[in-house]
């Protein structure tokens, strides 16, 4: 053991710096909640209730904001005016939906309404309601029959019968326990609707394929299925087309309105005649000021404890105001850099992104990468092409391009792969290696493995899966 003196440099973060970084990475909605919470614990903060911020959480003023943008765009191009007029119509529709205080009819209500006049015992109806409420977003029943039977004290056979009643409801395929059962329920409903009662209700070829050959169909091994069933390729192809027309998620057409979420953009990019204008969304969160009453009290009071308390709260409010101002300024700089770098995207739309890394933005703005990362975290940008997370404009890798062409983003390479696949001879589809060779004609040099990776990400089948049999 020994004692020694050494000089060391160490960086520490003050509470104010931590708070500044937290505010920087807040989205507009998070900042709104933060300010509202802060106003409850800090008495010197007075929320500005005039203008946009209302007690009903800026619902009416949201319309005023959109109207303001419309008025501001009055002298700009027609495309943006139409875009914001559509936004206003959607907002009005949303207000009518949310403001009426009605939740609407969801999947469970729709199903139970079909059984409203059916004759069931009280216990059976309780079981049916339990199973209907247990359906997931796809409309599938994922609980075990044995659990339901044990919970309600009845046989599994009787629970199966009640589930069958649910499966007989609209939409077809509801209450299925697997994809295979979902497709079969729809095919059976279709067959029963076509055939008359006098005709024998034999299994269709599509039902046979779903029951026995789902894996082979996924691999497009249709020729082998045709040989085994001794049917022509035309019949196999027609049955597969019938299967593809079915809805694998019959419950997805219904939405639980309590789960709907709306994105409030943190920045808006408006296309003018010769440039892009950037608006930072400062209307989502309330503005606040420091109470003059408490400022005067701090100056006049002789109670040192009260004076110290008020000084602390006023400093906190001033610091938060400063942090919010810095957040807006930094966000504006980052979005401006994105717009300049991705000019082709904002001009011509998706498919024209340039490769861009976090380090590129940081270098452009002469700030640390962590600052850019915090600024972009959880924030969204609205433009004429839709609403996008800010991270959407970043690409982790750039694909090498030959022949003097610009580097391409993975999304652009995927579009090229999709074009090549769409143009190939479906009777002799291209292998991943052949696609890699074909990409060289576009000046893109990637390996077969990369083609395979991108193809799987796009859910494109392999060579055998894309082959069409005669």
Q: How is this structure best described in words?
A:
It is a single chain. The chain is mostly helical. It is 54% helix and 5% strand. The chain has 22 helices and six strands. The strands form two sheets. The protein has a four-stranded mixed beta sheet, covered by helices on one side. Strand 5 and strand 6 form a beta hairpin. The longest helix has 38 residues, at 304-341. The radius of gyration is 31 Å and the shape is extended. The N and C termini lie far apart (86 Å). Residues 50-60, 73-84 and 90-104 have low confidence and may be disordered.
Keywords:
single chain; 470 residues; mainly alpha; 4-stranded mixed β-sheet; two-stranded antiparallel ribbon; 5% strand; extended
Which helices and strands, and how do they pair?
Elements: H1 15-24, H2 28-41, E1 45-47, H3 59-72, H4 78-99, H5 107-114, H6 122-133, H7 145-152, H8 156-167, H9 179-194, H10 205-212, H11 214-218, H12 222-229, H13 233-244, E2 267-271, E3 276-280, E4 288-290, H14 292-300, H15 304-341, H16 343-348, H17 358-365, H18 369-376, E5 380-383, E6 386-389, H19 410-423, H20 432-439, H21 448-457, H22 463-466
Parallel strand pairs: 2-5
Antiparallel strand pairs: 1-4, 2-3, 5-6
Structural class: mainly alpha
Mean residue pLDDT: 77
- Rg over alpha carbons: 31 Å
Number of strands: 6
Strand order of the largest sheet: 3-2-5-6
Order of helices and strands: HHEHHHHHHHHHHHEEEHHHHHEEHHHH
Inertia-based shape: extended
The separation of the N and C termini measures: 86 Å
Portion in helices: 40-55%
Largest sheet: 4 strands, mixed
Task: State the low-pLDDT regions, or none.
Answer: 50-60, 73-84, 90-104
Name the beta content range: 5-15%
SS element count, helices: 22
